[in-house]
Every structure is written in structure tokens, then in C-alpha cells.
Fold these 2 entries.
Entry 1:
Amino acid sequence: AQSVAQPEDQVNVAEGNPLTVKCTYSVSGNPYLFWYVQYPNRGLQFLLKYITGDNLVKGSYGFEAEFNKSQTSFHLKKPSALVSDSALYFCAVRDIGSYKLIFGSGTRLLVRP
Amino acid sequence: KAGVTQTPRYLIKTRGQQVTLSCSPISGHRSVSWYQQTPGQGLQFLFEYFSETQRNKGNFPGRFSGRQFSNSRSEMNVSTLELGDSALYLCASRDGGVDRAASPLHFGNGTRLTVT
């Protein structure tokens, strides 16, 4: 069965510093991986996806993610964090049998001024 | 294009009542999925509809049901509400084209249901 894990409940980073939010996956076959962000009292916003091709995927708002097959990881990154990036981030994998998205538990990112 | 619209944004119901939540997908999207979000269980898949047919169903009791109309709008219904049904219910639509696996979900802002 497909699954994703987000090992950190919270990540703290200073504004202007690089940020990384970690995600590892477990799938049979080729993974279809996604990152979403959720602001308070809002739904999830799609950031980026990895389907195939380049291991470095670029997405919205300056975010990117690095797919690493040997480490089964798909970490979200940003070179310079903004206070407005503070939110809840979810990694997800597509279940190929049902096509539903299976989400990780979420990581709260706090960017301090 | 307008995004996914969910109504109402907030609902307060009493245990034992039933509730209906509504979702209008992005124009042109024929696939609609529903998720439940709670602090304890996180995001859990409820069901997916495509062209008025339920494609998949998550592991929820039969009290949770849904339907989709010919204009792709969807509703979900929860009968005999329990305290544990308090959650944010999220609707998402997807371009149900050829590559189902690759197309991302686009979420609405959700309906926050509180059961007292």
C-alpha cells in the first residue's frame, strides 16, 4: 500500500534562510507525489508535483522539491523563506489503484522575522 | 476560472441530526472528491465521483454518502451525526482527463462542521 511520512511536526526557520520540509514515501511502482500548503481556515493549495523526469521540480511561490529514488524522499525546499510562508504543509502520494491522494500528517512551518 | 466553491463555510448541528454539504467544482472538472480533516486523523478520503458515478469510497460508515449531479456539482450527506463527525470537510475537483494519476486536486476552502 502507498504511504507518505512527514517526520517533523514543526519546522522553525528565520526569514531569509533556506527551508526544507521533509517527506518520505513508500510505493509499489513509480510514485506520483504532490505537495500542498494550507493556510488557516482555508483549503489546500497545490504547490507542485513529481510524475517523472527531472528530480528537481519547481512549483508555485518559489518552492521546489527534490525527488530522490534511492532515499525514497521528496523534500520540499525554498532558498529564502518568507514570514508569509508560515503554514501547514502536506505531502501526498497518488494511490494508483483508486487514484485517491494519500496525505502525510502535515508539517507546520513557522518562519520568524 | 473560479475555484472550487463549498457551502456553507460553517455549520453547527446537534448529535443525531443530519447534514448536507455542497460543492461546486472548477468549470470543466468532472471529478469531485471529498476529504475529512481532523486534528487526530489528518486528511482522510471519503469518496470520489465522476460523471455522476461513485468511483471510489473510503473507509467510512454508511452514514456518510454523496452524490454528483449532471452539472458536476456534488453534495455529501451525513446522517445521524455523532460528536466525532466534527471536522473540516474538504471538496476537491480534478480535470478527469486521460492522465488521472498526474492531475492534481484543487481544493475548496471547506465546510467546518461542529456537532454538539
Note: Chain B has a mean pLDDT of 94.
Entry 2:
Amino acid sequence: SAVISQKPSRDICQRGTSLTIQCQVDSQVTMMFWYRQQPGQSLTLIATANQGSEATYESGFVIDKFPISRPNLTFSTLTVSNMSPEDSSIYLCSVQGGVDTQYFGPGTRLTVL
Amino acid sequence: GENVEQHPSTLSVQEGDSAVIKCTYSDSASNYFPWYKQELGKRPQLIIDIRSNVGEKKDQRIAVTLNKTAKHFSLHITETQPEDSAVYFCAASINSGYALNFGKGTSLLVTP
């Protein structure tokens, strides 16, 4: 299975600031995904990040708030912009690994004060 | 879009008993159904998955069944152990390489 790392693992940020989360995979993958998991809740897809093209956002998520980069087949970033306390969540990237399964990174726990 | 419903939201069983978690989906185009286990503070871990051309799949104490006509699938855990305690999520997608739509999760507690 793919080895996925995320940075930072956690952060505490002030309202109005931005945070960029990195996702690194140890092998080339075509599709990477970004999910949000609010406290005690399920996982919600933010966007699909494809290398060489713009990310595809789900309903309720916009590029201005969650800009995504995908410069190559092993790396992606998600920025949470102009943060408010409602953005406090765990942000997880996932990738397709092996034959056809999806694996998740360890997540970034974000607290916005 | 796809809507995945999961029941129950909480489940408490005695060690050694069986646990069953059920999910329904809305999009008939969905053909890939994974189950994830998430322990507190950890990432979701894939425990078993099934594709629409298969009705049942088993891996030791864990099994998943799929009824494509009724659009529902279930996770069965037999001989439960305290270490099975976690939140379980079902999911559906139109293909295994595509984004997952998750159910709301089931918090399973196995008491000794």
C-alpha cells in the first residue's frame, strides 16, 4: 500500500489567517483527494486533485476558500484560507494505492481560535 | 449525487457476539463499496471492500454482503473482540479510483 504523509500533523491558528497542508506519497498516483472530518462527524469530500489540471470541487467548497495545488504525481497541497472557528476540523488526503483501493493520510488536525 | 445512509449510529455488543452494520446507497451507478475502521485519533483504515459483480466477500471474522437490486450492503463482524471497538464507515463510489461518498459512521463498542 502507498505510504502517505501529511504536514503539519496539527496546528492552532488565528482567525483570518491561512494554513497550507501538504500531502506526500511515496509512489506516483493519478488521483488524490482531500477530505474534511469535523469533530465526531463523517468524512466529506472537498475536492479531487488531478496533476496538470485544476482541482474539481464538491458542492459547498470553493477554490477561493480551499485552493489546491498538484504539481506532480506524488504531492499536493490544500490551503484553508481566511480561517474561522468553523474550519476547525481534521483534513485528510487520500490516494488510490495498489490495484484499486484508497488509502488515507494521517490527517492534519486544525484548530482555529 | 450519491447519498449513503448508515445504521445504526451506535452499537454495543458483548465480546464474542456478532455485529452487523447496514448501509444503503442511492446512485445505481455505484459499483465499489469499501468499509473503513477508524480508531480514536487515527486515520480511517480500509478493512474490506466489495464490488458490484460480487454478492459476498469474507476475510476471517469480517464479511460484507451486497444486494445491488435493493441498493444496500452490510458489514458483519463475528466473534467480536474489544479491539474491534471503533467507528466504522461505509462508502460508495462509481469506481474504486474515484471519490468516496461516506455514510455517517457507526460507533461500535465491544464490552468484555
Note: The first strand of chain B starts at residue 4 and ends at 7.
